[in-house]
Input
Amino acid sequence: MTAAIASPSTRALAGRKGIDIDALASELGRETIAKEDLDRKPNITAAPASASVGAGYWDVDHAAWGRVTEEPMSRFAQVAAGNLAAAQALIPAVTHHDRADMGEVEKFRAALKDESAARGVKLTALAFHAKALAKTLRAFPRFNASLSPDGKTLILKHYVHLGIAVDTPHGLMVPVVRDADRKGLWVIATEIADLAARAKDRQVRPDEMGGASMSITNLGGIGGTAFTPIVNPPELAILGITRTEMSPIWDGEAFRPVPLAPLDLSYDHRVINGADAARFLSHYAALLADPRRMLI
Output
């Protein structure tokens, strides 16, 4: 079956209505589908997003071009792929980029090096990011929310739970630090390390997954300067972090070296507009620039 021609907004509406847009085109004998066509055959249900959206593009005999081998996708990876495809197809996401001055955070971490060793807890920069995000979510409650399935109601949350994306041998997992706004840096650092270690061993419990206010995906330990993370529904936003780099910043008299962490905030534009996103990241970066503010 040839993939139907339809605009992204039409495909998104078909997804919300549960209509297989390619099957609809076949039944109507059409190559092009418009929004008004979706009201004609609401009984044609959609296949999983990863299989139905543009499936024709993947139906290729790759062996015709040279030698290939096949590797089956794990059940875990298949579920993740379906969720990511659905999120990308249905959420009108925008990514806002900014940078945070990490100079004071690094000084603070250095001052706590002996205490960190005594406690047996590595006080990572990620713990500061998590604490700053928890504080910022309290200051911007529309980010700490979810949209109802019909898109008519905004569900504001009175808790702050943070998803922490963990790269594991069996795929990406996102365990959750509960009530991060009510916990100190040492506790947050301890919980992140514990969850990450157990995620890699597939020992995270079901109750330690899901229900996050917002997630953090951190590539700082690997590299890169920017990326566009995919919003993890039913969350409304996700924060990406890449490697901190020393950059020359003009202070009015001379250039001075400043460690800057690139920040990438992807958000659901149905609820959050660009000005809100800019203010959110500006507030977040200000907390990191002066970490004493996040300890108040």
In short: The mean pLDDT is 89.
